[in-house]
Amino acid sequence: MFYLQAETTVINQGTQLLSPSADPTYVVTYINHSFAQHREYLCAGAWILMHGHPENINCTNLGRVLREFSPEEVTANIYTMVDVLLHHIHLELQRGHPLQDLMLKACGNLSVFIWNHELLPPDILLLALIDRDDDPHALRIVINILDSKELQQRVKLYLINRGPPEHWLSSGPFKRVELQKALGNYLSWKERYPTFFDDIAARLLPIIPLIIYRLLENDAMDAADRVLQVYSTFLHFYPLNFMFVRDILAYFYGHLPGKLILRILNILDIKKIPFSESFPQHINSSNAAMCPPLDYFATLLLGVVNHVIPSLNNSSKCAAMGDFANNSSRPPHGKIQATSQPGPTNSSEGQKPYYQMQDPGTLTQLTLETAVIELLSLPVSPSQIVSSLVQIVVHIQPTLVQSSNGLHGAPGSSGQGSILPTSPSGGSTDSLGATRTTPSVSGMNTSNFVSRSGYTCQQLSCLLIQACGLLLAQLPSEFHVQLYVEAARIIKESWWLTDPKRSVGELESAVSYALLDPTWAAQDNTSTAIGNIVALLHAFFGNLPQEWLEGTHLIIKHLRPVTSVAVLRIAFRIMGPLLPRLANAHTLFSKTLSLLLNILVDVFGRNSQQPAPIEATEITDLIDFLHHVIHYEGQGGPVQASSKPRSEILALFGRAAENLRPDVQHLLSHLNTDANSSIYAATHPKIVQNP
């Protein structure tokens, strides 16, 4: 009943205010005496009263009233009017009127409101329409407004008056267009002038990207392509256009046709963006299925090393490590006497103030995000991109060493030549005699990589692994899944894990060596595929937000079933460093810990079948790690003398222990909530759960 009365009141007030012969003095009466909930429907009432003909209402009175409304009231009016407009179209369709005629009439009437009388700000109207994109007609009206000659003429005038997009670099004061002319009657009379987008065309700059998002969400690819074609030059002035391009390529990755990707890239002024030299060739390639060569990906990684990864000279810790490597008794391979200091060759550019590079704010951000945009634009699958990057990382040390040897001659004292072993000796004479070798990556020319970086081979190989992890962490989840699959494949296919001739002790020794810091392996040229892939995963994890870390479990799922202590150690080495980071995310910590306990059961379960018996004492260090990490999680930080694990975690250990061999159960007996069987629980009665 209230709504009927309110509707009647709105129509009566609107008739008195907006009829062509309305008394001008009623404007003051309406402003002073109308209720706020009624004023919200003023524009909607005007739309109904004009019956499709704008001349049926008094636009002068409507404009005078809207001038007295606050910006919030104007916005509420526009949103309500859009609802009424769309509902009216549906009613007319039910009465048999053609849709095309209804759309033309609606768009024509809106044009009168927007351009002829300047009653409604087009930016708010467009926002209201795209917020109603659940209605099939809303986006069609949006496209019609963007196609209007009036709007495009405004945009052309803006481009002429504004000058180049980098106007902030111009010397002298900026000459602004007179406010009334720039803003029109929509906002120039408001007390709160817009301080940023001070032109009616400029106020569309943050709106058009939202419109493109909505069009893509509704699978209107052709319409989005047309909008980008018309407004790409205009969007050069959008302060966040780089972020927009990156985000839209990431959010809709895998759903955008190649032609549309090129349109999106044109939003950027490509000549001013540090894209790879061969990038245009790869995105315009007629053979879309052909993946770019490894040289292309290696150059991307080198750019990240030189301009994104902090220089070793800027970190005393890293510098000390580099000095130690150079002075170590282990002779470094391929040390280059570069004329420049190790690190980025143009590090000073990384300190440019934000106003000289508005989006992104620094050269560091620009380089990293340009690399991200390149990878997201390539017309190849995520698996091909990830496979190429991983292939570079896995064999990076032998590749750099061989290229360095080719430039500077064979190393004098290493005695290993230019081919590196795929597994370390680990103190085993059998492995020392192994004849398998790791060739450099085919199709990759790194002859000038070391000299271009200013680092030694050892330093550069480690930094390239870091760069690859950082770059992959910026990409959508499709790439993460492929990384997990590829990492598991490389580990499972490692010949020295699958070779039946290797003894358990030899594998144990080799794995322990392989999982050391790859910096050491780089120094004496005993790098391994597994060591590099684990280092890559750690660099990748370190740059992921916590909410994405649950996906890391996929690696272990692809490694299972685990049948050897060697692979068990690899799994612990991959996932172990994540556990302290998850100390305050109890659910994810429990899931990750449960996964590690499950693979422990795979190897040491009551029913596990091992070709040779494995002593429980082989994993006492892993048990010590589990003991420490659950105390860390219980404390929520570094372990103290009073630290206690949570009872839920101890219960998790209890359930896992039921499936373990008795000798392994004994190692976990102190991590049990049963006070009768657990020394630990008996001495900490507060954590014992009540039956």
UniProtKB/TrEMBL annotation:
Bias-annotated ranges (Polar residues): 337-350, 416-439
GO BP: positive regulation of gene expression; regulation of transcription by RNA polymerase II
GO cellular component: mediator complex; transcription regulator complex
Predominant subcellular localization, coarse grouping: nucleus
Subcellular location: Nucleus
Region (Disordered): 329-357, 405-439
Keywords, in A-Z order: Nucleus, Transcription, Transcription regulation
Source organism superkingdom: Eukaryota
Protein family membership: Belongs to the Mediator complex subunit 23 family.
Name of the protein this chain belongs to: Mediator complex subunit 23
Lineage: Eukaryota, Viridiplantae, Streptophyta, Embryophyta, Tracheophyta
